[in-house]
Amino acid sequence: MPTEASGNSGTSPGGEPSRPIRSWVRSSPGTHLWLLVIAITSLVIALSPEGLDTYLLHRNSSNLHQLAHHPLRALLGSAFWIEDPADLLLYAVLFEVLHAPVERWLGTAKWLFTVATAHIAATLISQQVVLVAIRLHDVPRSMAHVVDIGVSYGLAASAGILTYRLARPWRWLYLAAVLAFFLVPFAADRTYTDLGHLISLAIGLACYPLTRGKPFDRERGPAAH
Questions:
Q1: Alpha-carbon distance 78 to 62, whole Å?
Q2: 82-103: pLDDT as tens digits
Q3: Left (φ > 0), alpha (ψ -120 to 50) or beta: where does 140 sit?
Q4: What is the pTM of this model?
């Protein structure tokens, strides 16, 4: 006797084909929660009266002044703000292209460990370089108070570890492109932000052990779902 078709017959164990957007978001919750907070803070900046937006950005920066007086707030807060709300769409695309695939591939815990480690290490090391430069009178003391928002450090780390998601020879072509993307600005300008990006990229690449046993590791093909 024929039975009625199940209401979820179009749903596979690994997702919700009938609701692709919902499935995509649920497969990388950390990425999209982070992006949501950035969208909220960007809206706050956009709607803030003149002067308040500057105050908020400085208060949540991870510059030398904030790290010296409010280290935890500086390290955590700087990861949830962007300086120009007009760049929100660009960051949304980058989050979907870099963070979301890595989180889905490695899992939220390993992805978060990678980007958090990179964000903290890149911030502390690059700001230490600024401190040394100030003491050597290579840069003005005002550099201790500049706006330093660290969202891009996490992106650089994801870009690094994403290298191992690709099979050879595409892995090496991708790595060459990523290295060029971060090395060229550093060679041209040598800013502390460019240094932070390189540190984050290196940390992402150094997190290779977290990818052991994942698809494409050791030239294996994609895992069957």
A1: 6
A2: 988 999 999 999 999 999 999 9
A3: beta
A4: 0.83
